[in-house]
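Batch 3, record 17
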Amino acid sequence: MANKTAPDSSRRSERSRRAILDASLALVGEVGYDKLTIEGIASRAGVGKQTIYRWWPSKAAVLLDAFTAGVDEDYAQGLPDTGDLTADLKSVLHATVDEFNDPAFQAPYRALAVAGANDEELSRTFVSRLIEPGIRVYADRLRAAQESGEVAADADLRVAAEMLLSPFSQRWLMRTGELTYDFVDTLVDLVMRALRPGSESV
Amino acid sequence: MANKTAPDSSRRSERSRRAILDASLALVGEVGYDKLTIEGIASRAGVGKQTIYRWWPSKAAVLLDAFTAGVDEDYAQGLPDTGDLTADLKSVLHATVDEFNDPAFQAPYRALAVAGANDEELSRTFVSRLIEPGIRVYADRLRAAQESGEVAADADLRVAAEMLLSPFSQRWLMRTGELTYDFVDTLVDLVMRALRPGSESV
Amino acid sequence: MANKTAPDSSRRSERSRRAILDASLALVGEVGYDKLTIEGIASRAGVGKQTIYRWWPSKAAVLLDAFTAGVDEDYAQGLPDTGDLTADLKSVLHATVDEFNDPAFQAPYRALAVAGANDEELSRTFVSRLIEPGIRVYADRLRAAQESGEVAADADLRVAAEMLLSPFSQRWLMRTGELTYDFVDTLVDLVMRALRPGSESV
Amino acid sequence: MANKTAPDSSRRSERSRRAILDASLALVGEVGYDKLTIEGIASRAGVGKQTIYRWWPSKAAVLLDAFTAGVDEDYAQGLPDTGDLTADLKSVLHATVDEFNDPAFQAPYRALAVAGANDEELSRTFVSRLIEPGIRVYADRLRAAQESGEVAADADLRVAAEMLLSPFSQRWLMRTGELTYDFVDTLVDLVMRALRPGSESV
DNA sequence: TGGTAAACGAGACGGTACGTCGAGTCTTGAT
DNA sequence: ATCAAGACTCGACGTACCGTCTCGTTTACCA
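Prediction for the assembled complex:
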């Protein structure tokens, strides 16, 4: 299947791998995604270009690895559950507002979102590693609330989670609006109205 | 502000302008945004590269002009109002599902969304010319419904419109899910629950 | 022969003509021949490009006109004739040494010599307007000396004049040696030996 | 002095070097110096432009290398010495007349002469690699003749050599006259008169 | 413990596209 | 009709990176 003999990953230099990942993150923050080059990464990392090409298919893939390296475990413990769904959602989303307003976080994440739009393969990984887990932890928290009767039994929780998250990420990605606590509060309140038991469709 | 003496737009060649815009759209459909080049556009349009650089700052700006040329009037007549908000929303969104599933439409739109993420200036134009008007016509329709008592008086209609549109465009842009009639129906139903009179927050 | 209708030279703007010629000389001194451009001349002269193209076929032709404008009459009065050929030649060549060592003179003259080498048409004009007259005044002075018996009767005076002038201009053009009074004195002395009466070939 | 880190010449591709040199000579013969372009050379040689820019500073430098590649050894054996100076000079110059009247030779040589006039750095190399050795072999032959008493003891042989060569190359370069056997014969005869023993200046 | 094969740093290579400059042509108003 | 101005098509410039390809030079396993 592979036309080139695959490299022997057991002999891979961990030192180079880390240097490349670090250089990528540093550079994307400094010059932006468009001006991020393989040559630049190699030179900053003190590494031969071939070492990058040997292990990654594109600069987007490098960046994706660099970015997801420290993020995977964030979703592990799920959302808090104090028994008050509205309060839990607001508190988590307030934290997320702060995170997405942090410039250091923006550059690589935005770059990946973008790169994914034009690279379907990359997109799959990006979605399954970063976006999908995010949606899922929200859907899971909603399910818990549903089971405790806090949420209407017939609500489509996946779509509900998207109603919560997409307006948020859309505002951020496309700069269609400010990301404020007020905004997410309004959003949560509206969604909660839709999910309230007794609001079932006729 | 301008470092170069601005060109005299009264002497601009309409013929060249159209050729460039047409070539851009054709090419982005054929080769995609990443492989779209200024040289390619110029050559296809039978135009000197300088003529492109004289009037546009980047390939993204060309594409934005090309794309918005025929779209501006789409929002002019607003959304239909048959008196049944749910039905109106579903019918419009069904049409939009079809539009966004059309490959000819996808390439340039996706490209612009992407280009905007990394170019703040371009992003503003993209949002104000394409996205903002879209949100606005939905918000307007909701307002009409609110005035007729079909929607709760205290609902934030702008955020409600985003709850309707963002999950949709997010699925499309990031490929986080299928765009189907079912999906938008579920979406509309959920949002309508949130907006139903009598659902006001306590 | 001309495919375009020739411009009507009676309506030509003398003001523009002078401005173009002046700008050419000024610019060639400032930036050198290679970086001399038609656009630069036009802009400096406050003139449309077309006005230059209308009246001259190339930048070299402009420069040739500019340069020869004030030079033609230099050759009119011929070489001095005090009766002492050797002294006359040395005194004139000393003056020429000074002239050719003047930087203001070098740039355009060198440029024309060069342009001529690759443009046969221009070359003809350059030679017939500038070089040929120079050789001729020397040959004429030699002829006078021959008639007065100061020079051998059988000497080829045209070639003798070239023996005097070519080593000089060669040194200057190709930078093969310094242009000094000593050098031209040596040159004159050697040539005079060849021309001395009684040196006729056997 | 060098602002860019110099390339590692030990890794230079001999194949590319030869292809570039060959293409340069071929093209200058076909299109002339002015229309000779780096892009043209690169494309003809099947080479990236950067490979030319990496090793040469200008098209003139490429051409100089190309031209001198096969010429250096021409001067190695010096001029013939049959004991008859006049005959030796005439026979060599006759050969040179033929060489300079050969169109294949003219284009690059003329181009270099010209390029040198406007590029002092190039000029030095051109002179020291091609012109100076030429003058020197003539001066050497004259010295041999001087030592054997065929030439006056006090004559400046360097200037004498220039008297022989400069009128020749001047005629060729500036097209001030025909290059014929007759011309060089006359030239040699005149110079020989100047050098004849007993012609010493008083 | 020394030999050898892979990965490595470095960077030259053939290419493509960049954004700029100037050439020479063409069009528009003003004189 | 010529002029100043400058937009146009075209071609080349010199630069930046691409992804591929040698080069020695580590490095780590295995004989």
